[in-house]
Amino acid sequence: MKYYDEEQTGEIRRALEKGILSWPRVSKKEMMGCLCYFYGKKFFAFLVTKAVVITKLSEDDRVKLSRQMNGEPFKMTGRTVKTWVRVDLKSSRDVKMVLPFIKTSYQASRSRE
């Protein structure tokens, strides 16, 4: 099953990539039907249709993001990953609001090297 639709999410993807693809060692790759963003071999975020999932946040940051942007645990095929936060993105303005959390996840990936 494909979870990412470029036609519906292209504007959001372009805004996100404008912010993160210049960070050291960041690459992107389609994986599991999603567009994933990696630091080296570790992914720190991925896009699904009209949303981003951030994978490496502390519990405090997950709570803060959930309060600020109505984030929720990521659900896929009936399973919930409580440590990954899914945030709906309607526009590039939403991308700007979530970018600091994505940066935190990126930095966590770097520190685990």
What does this structure look like?
The chain is of the alpha+beta class and about 110 residues long. The protein has a single domain, classed as Yope Regulator, Chain: A (2-Layer Sandwich), CATH 3.30.1460. A six-stranded antiparallel β-sheet has the order 1-2-3-4-6-5. It is globular, with a radius of gyration of 13 Å.
Secondary structure layout plus pairing:
Layout: H1 6-20, E1 26-31, E2 34-39, E3 42-48, E4 51-54, H2 59-69, E5 72-76, E6 79-88, H3 92-111
Helix pairs in contact: 1-3
Describe the largest sheet.
Answer: 6 strands, antiparallel
Rg of Cα set = 13 Å
β-strand percent reads: 25-35%
- Topology pattern, helix = H, strand = E: HEEEEHEEH
Write down the overall geometry.
globular
Descriptive keywords:
113 residues; alpha+beta; Yope Regulator, Chain: A; six-stranded antiparallel β-sheet; 3 helices; globular
In short:
The protein is α+β, with helices and mostly antiparallel strands and 113 residues long.
